[in-house]
């Protein structure tokens, strides 16, 4: 059985798409670093090393938007794009999991 069809991404400018992609990369790396969910230090170390470059790329995406005159963030549209790209699940890795046995 084929996987369910995802809703289409909303129309985004190139800079907005770049912002979403770079943001999710940072979220994924922070999720790997999260000490409440990590299993080994090496994976967290590697993610922390990569975070520097991804955070720079995120900054550059925002700077490009600003330079192009895209001064407003269209949060509802970008939130839809994040949902389509599984951003909610990916961001959950940033939280502290519920306590066991409480």
What radius of gyration results from the CA coordinates?
Answer: 16 Å
Number of strand elements: 0
Q: How many helical elements?
A: 4
Mean pLDDT: 92
Shape, principal axes of CA atoms: globular
- Secondary-structure element series: HHHH
- Helix/strand/pairing category: mainly alpha
Q: Can you tell me the residue ranges where pLDDT is under 50 for at least 5 consecutive residues? A: none
Beta-strand residue percentage: under 5%
- Let me know the largest β-sheet: none
The CA-CA distance between the termini, in Å, is 40 Å
Account of the protein in words:
- This protein is mainly α.
- Helices cover 62% and strands 0% of the residues.
- It contains four helices and no strands.
- α1 runs antiparallel to α2.
- It is globular.
- The chain starts with 13 loop residues before the first helix and ends in a 10-residue tail after the last helix.
- The mean pLDDT is 92.
């Amino acid at each position: 059985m084929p996987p369910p069809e995802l809703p289409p991404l909303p129309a985004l400018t190139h800079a907005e798409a770049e912002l979403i992609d770079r943001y999710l990369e940072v979220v994924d790396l922070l999720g790997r670093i999260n000490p409440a969910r990590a299993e080994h230090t090496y994976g967290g170390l590697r993610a922390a090393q990569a975070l520097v470059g991804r955070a720079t790329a995120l900054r550059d995406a925002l700077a490009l938007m600003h330079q192009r005159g895209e001064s407003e963030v269209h949060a509802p549209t970008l939130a839809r794009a994040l949902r389509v790209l599984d951003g909610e699940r990916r961001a959950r890795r940033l939280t502290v999991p519920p306590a066991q046995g409480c």
